[in-house]
Amino acid sequence: MDLSERDRHMLDFERACFTLPGTKESAIRARFAMSPASYYRILRDLLDDEASYRYDPLTVKRLRRDRALRRRQRIEGRRADPGSR
Q: What's the rounded Cα separation, in Å, for the pair 30 and 64?
């Protein structure tokens, strides 16, 4: 299935969001008229969609790598926490 226009705009936004002034959350609200939580839920699904990878492989790879790093840090943080046993 091909990406919707909104999906393409989200990937384009992720490619360049670090160059925008202000916070990312306020830019998400202004540009997409949705809460950051909704945005990130949609983005998470986009990262698993091969059509996204075909549209912008570099951005999708970077976001997948970042997601894997955050996941790994959460898991390792739980193991390192002595109160979690």
A: 25
